[in-house]
Amino acid sequence: MKRVAINQSNYIPWKGYFDLIHDVDTFIFYDDVQFTKNDWRNRNKVKGPNGPQWLSIPVGTDLNRLICDVSLDDSHWQEKHWKTLAQLYSRTPYFDTYRGFLEDVYLNREWRNLAHLNQFLIQTIATEYLGIRTTFQQSSDFSSSGKGQDRVLSLLKSVKADVYISGPAGKAYLDPARFREAGIELIWKDYSGYPEYSQSHPPFEHAVTILDVLFHTGPDAPSYIWGWRAGERPVRMASAGG
Q1: Given 62, 67, 106, 121, which is the most exposed site by the fewest CB atoms within 10 A?
Q2: What is the pLDDT of residue 241?
Q3: d(CA 153, CA 198)
Q4: Reduced to 3 DSSP states, what percent helix, strand and coil does the chain have, rounded to the nearest 5?
Q5: What single-letter DSSP state applies at residue 67?
């Protein structure tokens, strides 16, 4: 049974994104679709003393672009993002574990394309730091057709998917009957029930970048993302902000 997920690449996405990647055999970056303003493609949240705050990459105002065509013309944001991460998280237990990787990303490289940056971060974090063995592909690799649901089904047929796992947002445009007709099982991803961990700056907040999980829990991060469901490791259910 081949399990597949399809999603746009996001900037240092939250733990649920990696939970979905872990659920499937093949994850397809859906980046040859319309770029959306004020969305997760070029920004995400970190946890500060005053609550969650945005880390946003400047991408200009042109909305008539595909995600894969969004260029990054100004690199000044890279040092700013690194300084913010260091300021907020340098005292967390595992910040130094990922320091070298992130310094390379933010200080040693210059990114010119949003999708390239997002995909690099996601794949590296998934494989090297979370131990995920999922195969990554891009929607542009396939000669799929149609829009919306039709495009999704076309991609799934191209990779011979048996199961499609979709986030809850897919309920707005995916028709389960169409998937049954195509012989593909449709499963809705459930993001509820994640255990809390000892997070800086209470109260606890789940909807922040995966980096927050890594900085606070290090090698135990998988147990807070998916392992807790199967009891792979005992985890402490921290009180809010505890």
Answers
A1: 62
A2: 31
A3: 41
A4: 45, 15, 40
A5: G
